[in-house]
Amino acid sequence: MVAKELPAKDLSGTSDPYVRVMLLPDKKHKLETKIKRRTLHPKWHETFYFEEFPIQKLNSRVLHLHVFDYDRFSRDDSIGEVHIPLCQVGGVGAVGGV
């Protein structure tokens, strides 16, 4: 996963982005990437496993990716988000697919 040209949310002119990943409409399946320090162009090479979730139901779900700027002493800042209906992604629900 890659983000480009994120807005600077820190006084240093950069951000410390991470992504919260959810399968909607269930909000109980929530995972997060690692924080990428001091960058506006982060790359995450991570794999997410939604355990105890039937692969046959993926086509009816929406992948919600929400990018935040990590702040140590205050609430994390929202940078942006996207909703991806998995029915529009090829290979979803197939063995070895998304």
From TrEMBL:
It holds the Pfam family C2. One of its GO terms (cellular component) is plasma membrane. It comes from the Eukaryota. InterPro entries: C2_dom, C2_domain_sf. One of its GO terms (molecular function) is calcium ion binding. GO terms for biological process: calcium ion-regulated exocytosis of neurotransmitter; vesicle fusion. Residues 1-98 form the C2 domain. This is C2 domain-containing protein.
